[in-house]
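[audit] Reproducing an earlier prediction to check determinism. Same input, same settings, fresh worker. If the tokens differ from the archived copy the diff job will pick it up downstream; this log only records the rerun itself.
[audit] input (234 residues):
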Amino acid sequence: MSGFFITGTDTGVGKTFVTAALILALQQRGLAVAPMKPLAAGTIDVNGVPINDDVALLCDLSDHHYPLHAVNPYCFREAIAPHIAAQNEKVDVDISVIQTAYLELATRADVVLVEGAGGFLVPMSASESMALIPAALHLPVILVVGMRLGCINHALLTVEAIRARGLALAGWVANTCGETMNAYAENLSTLKSLIPAPLIGEIAHITTADEFDAAAEAAEMLNIQPLIQPEEPS
């Protein structure tokens, strides 16, 4: 086990939240876990350094210090689609830079959790989408499904796009995103029957506003055993 790529059915379905929970769950198993967000848009000021708030959270949750240039190779100031932010800053996103950063982290950690931006096919540049990242890094994918109206279609389309690129789907997480969904159990049952990968977590509504406590609570709702010891294909 060297790493996973975390993607979602859409923007705002809790990719960072699930990545945070995965960091804690894997660390509880004694593993050194490096977070990575290759592209991030939108920054806050931390001790005079502009940093993406999601990146800051993931770094704070990690038990070890990893160099920021490797954790987040491309950080754009505007909180907009990454490829547009890159264009505005006249930056060409280079997959080889991301590969080099990933390899640096992989030499320091047992597991690297690579979080995408937006959904699976969100543009990374004028010619490539986020789907290039797991392909270039040879990573299995973890899909975060936002449990809301329309999630079945969004989930199945994303699964189809993942498999069409020859990528392995390691598992998926059902995240309520703090919403109440009509026919939740029926939708979850449908997804379980149609997604060809294990459900590794069903994250219920968490009321605490503290990000660290919320991530710890969510980590308790994950079953990471399929990630540590995946089933052999039949």
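[audit] rerun output stored. Observation attached for the diff report: The mean pLDDT is 93.
[audit] end
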